[in-house]
Write a structure and sequence with these properties.
The chain contains no helices and five strands. The chain is an all-beta fold and 77 residues long. It starts with 10 loop residues before the first strand and ends in a 6-residue tail after the last strand.
Length: 77
């Protein structure tokens, strides 16, 4: 399964509301920082460490497989 990769400014929400890393206060957030994580196992895939500013929670680091994109950031050239 291929992971979704995010960019700064993307709006996100949690994929699974009932896992150990979820919170009812993490409703909608905006990606503020990104770090690429390389897979360290043959069966693993690359992903991102993503810092999200949650509207009702604050800043929190998580990984890209735990998030889904609500809207993409606008890029003005």
């Amino acid at each position: 399964m291929k992971n979704t990769f995010f960019k700064i400014g993307d709006l996100v929400e949690q994929k699974h509301l009932y896992d150990a890393h979820s919170s009812p206060y993490k409703t909608v957030g905006i990606v503020t920082k990104i770090r690429r994580l390389k897979a360290n196992d043959v069966e693993a895939t690359d992903c991102q460490a993503v810092q999200v500013l949650w509207a009702e929670y604050g800043k929190f680091w998580t990984t890209s497989p735990r998030l889904k994109k609500v809207a993409s950031a606008e890029v003005n050239a």
